[in-house]
């Protein structure tokens, strides 16, 4: 027997305000306790966590993506890095992983014909020689700078 689909509803301003208040006042309080205290009984821990991390966190960068961020996303995607791991990169650390994923699917994927093409030069801000072999060729791979 299949379960009926769970209906999702939009977050209200009151719910957002309550979540912001309890998460900023009690940052180490578990999500379950925040839900109890904020009286968000019809919200689960996962939805509260996502709402906080993707929309309400005070340090989120919601500005336009820079060309450097775009190039970094393209490069990391070519390496198979997950969206959540990309968020930990220096240039992308204040971007929600959902924004990075949406940027890729809505803008960058169309722009890149072959992301994994090893002949594609890396942008200057992600190039760093890892080693110099006997022939004198530098291998550029490290994107953490």
TrEMBL record:
Signal peptide: none annotated. Keywords: DNA-binding, Nucleus. Pfam families: Myb_DNA-bind_6 (PF13921). One of its GO terms (molecular function) is DNA binding. GO terms for cellular component: nucleus. Residues 57-112 form the HTH myb-type domain. InterPro entries: Homeodomain-like_sf, Myb_dom, Myb_TF_plants, SANT/Myb. PANTHER family: MYB FAMILY TRANSCRIPTION FACTOR, TRANSCRIPTION FACTOR MYB72. This is Uncharacterized protein. It comes from Vitis rotundifolia. The lineage of its organism: Eukaryota, Viridiplantae, Streptophyta, Embryophyta, Tracheophyta.
């Amino acid at each position: 027997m299949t379960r009926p689909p769970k209906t999702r509803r939009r977050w209200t301003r009151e719910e957002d305000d309550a979540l912001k208040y309890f998460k900023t006042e009690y940052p180490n309080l578990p999500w379950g306790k925040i839900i109890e205290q904020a009286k968000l009984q019809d919200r689960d821990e996962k939805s509260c966590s996502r709402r906080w991390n993707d929309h309400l966190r005070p340090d989120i960068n919601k500005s336009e993506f820079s060309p450097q961020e775009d190039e970094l996303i393209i490069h990391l995607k070519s390496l198979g890095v997950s969206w959540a791991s990309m968020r930990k990169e220096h240039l992308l650390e204040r971007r929600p992983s959902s924004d990075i994923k949406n940027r890729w699917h809505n803008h960058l994927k169309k722009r890149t014909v072959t992301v994994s093409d090893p002949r594609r030069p890396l942008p200057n801000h992600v190039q760093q020689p890892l080693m110099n072999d006997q022939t004198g060729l530098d291998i550029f791979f490290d994107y953490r700078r």
